Amino acid sequence: MSGEPRSERLPIAGPAAVRRALLDLVRGDVHVLAAMLALTAAAALAAAAMPRLLGMIVDDFQEGAGASRIDLLATVAIGFGIAHLLLTRFAGLAGSRLGERALYRLRGGFVARALALPTHVVERADAGDLTTRNSTDIALVGQALREAAPDFFVATIRIGVLLAAVLLLDPLLGLCVLCGLPLHWVVTRWYLRRAPGDYLAERAAASEVSEVLSAGVEGAKTIEALRMQEQRMDLVARTIAASHRARRRTLFLRTVLFVVVDVGHALPVATTLLLGGYLYSAGGIGLGTAVAGSLYAWQLADPVDQVLMRVEQVQSSLASLARIEGVGEAAVPEPASTGLDGAPDGKGFVAAGVHYAYDGGPDVLGGVDLTVRPGEWLAIVGPSGAGKSTLGKLLAGLEAPTKGTITVQGRQVSALPAHERRRYVLMVTQEHHVFLGTVRDNLAMADPDAGDDAMLAALAAVDAHWIGDLPHGLATELGAGATHLDPGQAQQLALARVVLADPQTVVLDEATALLDPVTARRAERSMAAVLQGRTVVAIAHRLHTAHDADRVAIMERGRIVEIGEHHALVAAGGPYAGLWRSWHGA
Ligand SMILES: Nc1ncnc2c1ncn2[C@@H]1O[C@H](COP(=O)(O)OP(=O)(O)OP(=O)(O)O)[C@@H](O)[C@H]1O
């Protein structure tokens, strides 16, 4: 492929799609969600019962109640304490289970959406974009689903129950407990508005410092030779100063947030104590009520801290979820079955008036008409960038023409569902990926119904006799940390997949170009076995492939300018004859 493709970002889902995605993630586990919420509410109620009981103990003690009554109340309080611990643990388990299962769905969904991306979208997407969404974004959402979101919900429920408990205890004391919340609300909003930008700026400034320093170390000799020490020192000083400024900004955010949050925690406790003391001395409430109210105010600090701590994590994970869901917006759904069974109709592939442009760019195919006859070996040759590989991808149905049609059995090839399309055509390229899993898993992709005998026969057909040396045969695990296949074996595995898929036509894009000579010869033998009896469209980057073909099509600037049999074309003295002569150095 020639030319530098423009890089683009994948889409990002909108808020409505993110809400739908969140619902989908928990939809299958509504009962676990309900159990988590119920257990959390029960745990919060148990926790809320303790201050009330302590207040009762204080009142009873003051009124001179007997030891047995105090012992009973203390035992009940301990019982509630134990219940709180147990319920919190089970709520935590339910939350983790919910999170783990949601993460499992999220990962599965992401893989499905990524696999449904058209090749040109993957090729054009910023190289790191898809990888970051698959790694960092999924990790962030995973962490939020497993920890932050359950903690956030648990803390929110605890706050609600505590507030209800203190308002029921005494509405005036309840108002005192509430007085810290507006402070938390205002400072958190202030912090969240500034934090993302300032933290990003801090990280960017830190990377800039390390880049400038390492560039200085790497280029030390040049700097010395050109006597640029002072300029470099200036640059280093400026980047460090910028980093210092960025750090001060985030430090300022933290100092304001932490101080206000601490004040927000202390204020309700102080005001409840003051008002409780006043009301008690004025005879408005009992001492037990004042004690219980202060304990509620004190208990509130922990869940409020949790909410503040988790809210940022939940927010940034929602941004990550929007990026993960966005991948689905560029995906193309699998077409519906057409009922075609792969039986040949004698017409082969027919390309009529085919145009193609990559993502709104100029046409790289400008009106290709071509019939690939059943059983023939057609080589496509031409200068770099002429559009050979693009035409190959279109013939294999991996992309649809922007104008015109490519049909087999009267149906547009790209519109056939994958399992039907591979009965007609498969593209074989230079990339032979070995997937993590067993040899059997790697082969079953081509034909999920194939039995072991068919798989072994396919491997034998491509000379992959090494299967007999593997410790567990077809059940041998392949990939990192397991059995490693060399490039030649990886190619044979890919070719065995072609044998299993058994397509009528193979589009071959320079399949042996990246292999060393010995492996390439082995691969060519395996290839010959695979191609036997099939229609072959060979994207030929070397002309000897063309010499052996039944017909040769010559492409220039997105069009087929000549087509015919090798000797006839050489004799005709046209573009192919020119290529042939220059290849022979004549
Ligand atoms: N993914 C892509 N995005 C944008 N443009 C592309 C992409 N792939 C190919 N092109 C452009 O399409 C044109 C045809 O490329 P193509 O790879 O089909 O040519 P080719 O004849 O196979 O070349 P080569 O022999 O160098 O592989 C070129 O101008 C190329 O830059």
From TrEMBL:
Give me the segments passing through the membrane: 30-49, 70-91, 159-187, 251-271
State whether keyword Kinase applies: no
Q: Domain ABC transporter: where?
A: 349-582
Source domain of life: Bacteria
The answer to whether keyword Ubl conjugation applies is: no
Q: How does it sit in the membrane?
A: Multi-pass membrane protein
Cell compartment(s), UniProt: Cell membrane
PANTHER family, alphabetically? ATP-BINDING CASSETTE SUB-FAMILY B MEMBER 10, MITOCHONDRIAL (PTHR43394:SF1), ATP-DEPENDENT PERMEASE MDL1, MITOCHONDRIAL (PTHR43394)
What's the protein name?
ABC transporter ATP-binding protein
List the taxonomic lineage: Bacteria, Bacillati, Actinomycetota, Actinomycetes, Streptosporangiales
